[in-house]
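Support request, please re-run this one:
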Amino acid sequence: MSESIVQKQAGLQGLNTAILLPSVSLFGEPAGLYPDEVGPLTSVVGIGLFQRTVLTLQRAGIRQLMVLVGVEEDQLKQALGKGSRVTIPVRWLPIREFPLDDPRTWEALAAEVRGFCLLSGVQGVFAAPLIESLRHEVQEGQAIVVARPDSGRTRQSRRSSVRVKAQAGRLLSITSKQDDSALMATDLVVLPAGLMSAAGHIDVETGTVPIRRWLERAAVDGHVRVLSTETNRSHWYQDVRDAADVKAAERKLFNSLKGEFEGLVDRFFNRKVSRWFTRIFLAAGLSPNVITILATLVGLAAATCFGLGTYSAGIVAALLFQLAAIIDCCDGEVARLTFTESPFGAKLDIAMDNVVHMAIFAGIAAGAYLRVAGTDDAWVPLVLGSAAVLGNGLSLWLVTRAQKIKSSSGWKTPVQAAWSDFMLKNVASRDFSVVVFIFAVIGKLDWFLWMAAIGSVVFSLLMLWVVRPSARTRA
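Re-run finished. Output below.
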């Protein structure tokens, strides 16, 4: 059997299907039980809970969805048709025809599943890496329950809560009683298709969801594992049942934002400030590409101010450049929050970043020339500026080649791959905006020009070494 066929069968037998229950929690409590409780259409950072759940599962690699839906079917369909595009197939199964307490419903669903199935409610917000981890953690015949630490707020909440006790990652028991040593069960459960198809052999109370009974039965044989979200910060889960939960979920979404290539300034300053701008851009409905162009315009304005050559203009220019770096963080944040990432947007972002950088180098060179015009050394800033611009342009071209090599043939050794990632990270770094500001404050932008010229040339030479033919494997 060929390797491609083996890989295809492995993919089909893995965790690729999800069943959503927008009307109830997995452990039986109806949604909207309390007057102030939110529903599947409640917006979290501009996207309804149901739509956000579907898009998160899609981003994490789920290939097909089945929705056991009640009277809200038309509303959910309309919500799913708005905003970001859902590209995976979605099947709508009315609860009136597929009752949740009927074993035949689950037997029919099990017949549609190859390998494993993710069961999920929609009154929660969770990270795509959590689902990706579940897809890698599945083991034959084993169910998985996702649990989280008790935040303390649940004790004051009117809604019931289900807790799980585990030992060495295995489920021991499920209880609704207060227990400080137990974890809170979330609305994410992975079931093998075989466990669902055997539903008819387990007695279930009329009108209830049988998932808890299945898990309790399977736990006796040690066939249920517990994945705690506290083991990995990127595997977070937030219940969303009331207004306070909505705010907590939005905070977690914003705190989870991180670019692919980040420096220290991005991490400890730009990202802190950019989230305020991101909220404004989301409220205004700006697309990521529009935000990229806005950051570019601010950066070009900074370059123009540098070209004036005065001390005060240099300070204003440095501040504008820092503002451009902050806004430049927002396009990726908006894209990730609204599921509007695109290959074109990623290319536009890195291209405009480098256009701004080259304009900044040219502007500083022009300003430095104006300050020494008429002297014997007036040619120096022009040569330095040209070297910085040409070095940056060559680096951008080489980085584009490196990205193509990485996505097609790849690198020959891990060391060469690490060098490539290091260089890609640094070409997209915005950290030098702070260095520019410091040189502007002390009135030594010409010193920065020397640094930029030498650095750009050295960087381009290193990139030439990285993409050399001997570093690449054959396609």
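The radius of gyration is 27 Å. The chain has a mean pLDDT of 85.
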